[in-house]
Amino acid sequence: MTKEIIIRIQTPDGMKRVNIPSTSTLKDLYDMAYKTLNLLDYGFGLFSDRGCSKELRSTRSVTINNSKLNHGDVIYYKQMAGSSSQSTTSSSSSSNSITPVPMKKQAPSVVEDPVDIELFKLDGRIERKKDEKLCHHTNNSRCVHCASLEPFDESYLKEQKIKHLSFHSYLRKMTSGMDRGKFVAFEDINCKIKGGCREHPPWPKGICSKCQPSAITLNRQTYRHVDNVMFENNGIVDEFLNYWRISGNQRIGFLYGTYEVTTDVPLGIRARIVAIHEPPQESTRNAIKLLEDPLDGEVQEMAEKLGLKKVGWIFTDLLNHETISGKVKHLRGIDTFFLTAKECILAGHFQNLHPNPCRYSSNGFFGSKFVTICVTGDKENQIHMEGYQVSAQCMALVRDNCLLPTKDAPELGYVRESTDKQYVPDVFYKI
């Protein structure tokens, strides 16, 4: 027959006793303490010493006997920071308990970019001319062969070799149903445990489906926030490249300009670059280290007065060709990589610093228009520029500190493993 023992729990309000079988687990002991002490949540710890340095962790793998607790032993209760304290009952019969009622969450006022306001006003439909062979009607009529198309029409995008939807075309697609987008709401991906769960002790002592972040399966993002990047003149890039031409070291700069509508893509957005600001940095032929910029505030103020904003960043990855004079090495491509893991993480960091205002998001922001420009060598060993943005999934993983670069393979990233301080969700990918 299982022997039942008494464990005394020392709390700030006095000593409490619990009767528990000696074969029970420490998880059962926490549950008994939760009920006996009339607690509001599991944000507490039990310790075997008065100094609260030897914690009895809540686990099903350790029993009372294995933890060396005996009949009549005293353990010590400690409230963890940020959790609710014990519930109290007033001794006055005339007093009433008052429970605050949460107010309905209101949508934040969103100050959208001028280019977004302009695009929302446009019809966006793709006009088609009358087909002389297939259309047998007057010029004032329309048929299935010449009727205007939606900006997200798959056959048109495939015909024009447009790989990604513009973000506003994606919005039109999401709001084109019978409800006209009444229930469309963009939410940022969450990679952290939701706080305040009262069903179990806080991580790493416990976790449940209510507070655990969902696993992430990496998917190709079908839309992009910026569809084209254009420099106002050649001198902007040439002046930026002069540092590499003189020293042979790499360089980073921040792009300043405006966003405007482009007709190359239905409801598309173009970033027009008018200036590059080169912040303090230490660079070599293979690496760059950004330093704190004491003039950052002044640069931002000057840009605002000129009607400009920080729209992206640019970096070089250029090495002179060993045998061909005036040429550079072709380092990046489909056979190697387009961006390294470090560059993707840095791009995600910059995009998180410059979120995109969006009226369909619960917090007023979704994604980012911040662009990444890489200056490197192409297949013909000429200096070439490519533009990139990382996906919303990458932004979330970077924001919640889930990604690390690898040392031996620059094209591969590494997902952190969960620790006592941070839970990291599972990340899957499709081949």
From TrEMBL:
Region feature Disordered, mapped onto this chain: 84-109
Alphabetically ordered keywords of this record: Metal-binding, Zinc, Zinc-finger
Domain of life the protein comes from: Eukaryota
Pathway per the UniProt entry: Protein degradation; proteasomal ubiquitin-dependent pathway
Keyword field contains Zinc: yes
InterPro entries: MPN (IPR037518), Npl4 (IPR016563), NPL4_C (IPR007717), Npl4_Ub-like_dom (IPR024682), NPL4_Zn-bd_put (IPR007716), Ubiquitin-like_domsf (IPR029071)
Limits of the MPN domain: 229-366
Residue spans of biased composition, Low complexity class: 84-97
Molecular function as annotated in GO: ubiquitin binding; ubiquitin protein ligase binding; zinc ion binding
GO-annotated cellular components: nucleus
Gene Ontology terms describing biological process: ubiquitin-dependent protein catabolic process
Entry's family note: Belongs to the NPL4 family.
Protein name per the record: Nuclear protein localization protein 4 homolog
Organism: Clunio marinus
